[in-house]
């Protein structure tokens, strides 16, 4: 692991998500493109208005005091801009940034090596901080609060703790599962923010900005069509824009309008609500094979030929957020919106008695 290489990151999402056009996890291509498209300051950053306003106050106050900024915790789904904000924090403070991830820190010694090499005022971005090992986590408590770590030399009764003073630094932690962070760690962050999913209008602004940087011609309707299928996530919006650009260059005159965007995303099997092949396979199995449910997760996974974890962690979160699927104690159940979206007619009331209890109909 090269601690000085900002592209050397480890992600925590399931492998299946890496291969999906609408997956929010960044692969190698995404990381390269994101580096070119990333905003360089808070003024360029689109969306997350409250977070930007609050963070701007924190950073301006720190600069006015001539002090290092407070530690920052950013939570939210992948692809919403946590890494981008960490880089903006470093740029706004005029400080270098070191990037690593929780899964890469499996021993306290790994963390001690990083901390001991930090410069004064440097920003340490720790992605997926909730996946850090417990010994490293406990070392981080003291480092964040007292800017000091105890390095243990030797083993057993003869072990000695050598205190190591650290220069003041800013830790920016990012997590997709804030609930897994222990309270002692969460409480040591001076500023915490939750990143929300983007509205279509905000994604249209992201798409227009990215199209300009990529030298792609796109009209308002074309941007709206892509934004509506981007699942509220800028990273997905930028990825879809690149694929639509490819289609427009090969099949049209290179200009993206609503018709071209719709045709291109149809080729890539991304429907009008942003569902892809896996999402629709889950819904179709639930509706056509099991009458809308309830059905157990393992049974549903077998029906679509995927691992249980893939269905639960990759497909279900978006389907639940869109109101197409419900998780209940009795199993997974399709909502009326799911039947409507796939153009299917629900079975008669007599065969839906299980759903009547769940939805109160």
From TrEMBL:
The subunit field of the Swiss-Prot or TrEMBL record says: Homohexamer. Forms an RuvA(8)-RuvB(12)-Holliday junction (HJ) complex. HJ DNA is sandwiched between 2 RuvA tetramers; dsDNA enters through RuvA and exits via RuvB. An RuvB hexamer assembles on each DNA strand where it exits the tetramer. Each RuvB hexamer is contacted by two RuvA subunits (via domain III) on 2 adjacent RuvB subunits; this complex drives branch migration. In the full resolvosome a probable DNA-RuvA(4)-RuvB(12)-RuvC(2) complex forms which resolves the HJ.
For this protein, the Enzyme Commission number is: 3.6.4.-
Q: Where found in the cell?
A: Cytoplasm
The reply on keyword Mitochondrion is no
The ranges of region (Head domain (RuvB-H)) come to 272-361
Give the start-end ranges of region Disordered: 339-361
Name the predominant localization. cytoplasm
Please give the NCBIfam families that the UniProt record associates with this protein. PRK00080.1, ruvB
The UniProt record gives the binding positions of Mg(2+) as 83
Q: Which organism is it from?
A: Streptomyces spectabilis
Name of this chain's protein = Holliday junction branch migration complex subunit RuvB
Composition bias, Polar residues? 348-361
Q: Name one GO biological process term.
A: DNA repair
Q: Where is the AAA+ ATPase domain?
A: 68-199
Q: Where does ATP bind?
A: 37-38, 79, 82-84, 145-147, 188, 198, 235
Chain segments carrying region Large ATPase domain (RuvB-L): 18-198
Q: Which Pfam families match?
A: AAA_lid_4 (PF17864), RuvB_N (PF05496), WHD_RuvB (PF05491)
Briefly state the protein's biological role: The RuvA-RuvB-RuvC complex processes Holliday junction (HJ) DNA during genetic recombination and DNA repair, while the RuvA-RuvB complex plays an important role in the rescue of blocked DNA replication forks via replication fork reversal (RFR). RuvA specifically binds to HJ cruciform DNA, conferring on it an open structure. The RuvB hexamer acts as an ATP-dependent pump, pulling dsDNA into and through the RuvAB complex. RuvB forms 2 homohexamers on either side of HJ DNA bound by 1 or 2 RuvA tetramers; 4 subunits per hexamer contact DNA at a time.
Keywords, ordered alphabetically: ATP-binding, Cytoplasm, DNA damage, DNA recombination, DNA repair, DNA-binding, Helicase, Hydrolase, Nucleotide-binding
């Amino acid at each position: 692991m090269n601690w000085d290489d900002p592209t050397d990151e480890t992600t925590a999402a399931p492998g299946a998500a890496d291969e999906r056009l609408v997956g929010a996890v960044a692969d190698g291509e995404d990381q390269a493109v994101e580096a070119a498209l990333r905003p360089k300051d808070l003024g360029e950053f689109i969306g997350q208005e409250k977070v930007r306003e609050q963070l701007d106050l924190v950073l301006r106050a720190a600069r006015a005091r001539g002090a290092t900024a407070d530690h920052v915790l950013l939570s939210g789904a992948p692809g919403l801009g946590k890494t981008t904000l960490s880089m903006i924090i470093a740029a706004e403070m005029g400080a270098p940034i070191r990037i690593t991830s929780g899964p890469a820190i499996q021993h306290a010694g790994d963390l001690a090596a990083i901390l001991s090499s930090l410069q004064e005022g440097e920003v340490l971005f720790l992605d997926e901080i909730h996946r850090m090992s417990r010994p490293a986590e406990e070392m981080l408590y003291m480092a964040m609060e007292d800017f000091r770590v105890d390095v243990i030399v030797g083993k057993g009764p003869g072990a000695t703790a050598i205190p190591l003073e650290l220069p003041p630094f800013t830790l920016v932690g990012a997590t997709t599962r804030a609930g897994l962070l222990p309270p002692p760690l969460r409480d040591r962050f001076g500023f915490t923010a939750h990143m929300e999913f983007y509205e279509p209008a905000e994604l249209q602004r992201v798409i227009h900005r990215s199209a300009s940087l990529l030298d792609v011609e796109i009209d308002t309707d074309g941007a709206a069509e892509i934004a509506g299928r981007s699942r509220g996530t800028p990273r997905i919006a930028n990825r879809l824009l690149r694929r639509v650009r490819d289609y427009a260059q090969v099949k049209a005159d290179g200009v993206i309008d609503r018709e071209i965007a719709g045709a291109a995303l149809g080729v890539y099997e991304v429907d009008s609500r942003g569902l892809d092949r896996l999402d629709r396979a889950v819904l179709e199995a639930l509706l056509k094979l099991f009458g809308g449910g309830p059905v157990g997760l393992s049974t549903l996974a077998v029906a679509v030929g995927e691992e249980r974890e893939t269905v639960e962690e990759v497909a279900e979160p978006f389907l639940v957020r869109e109101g197409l699927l419900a998780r209940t104690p009795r199993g997974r159940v399709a909502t009326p919106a799911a039947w409507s979206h796939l153009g299917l007619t629900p079975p008669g009331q007599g065969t839906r008695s299980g759903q009547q209890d769940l939805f109160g109909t």
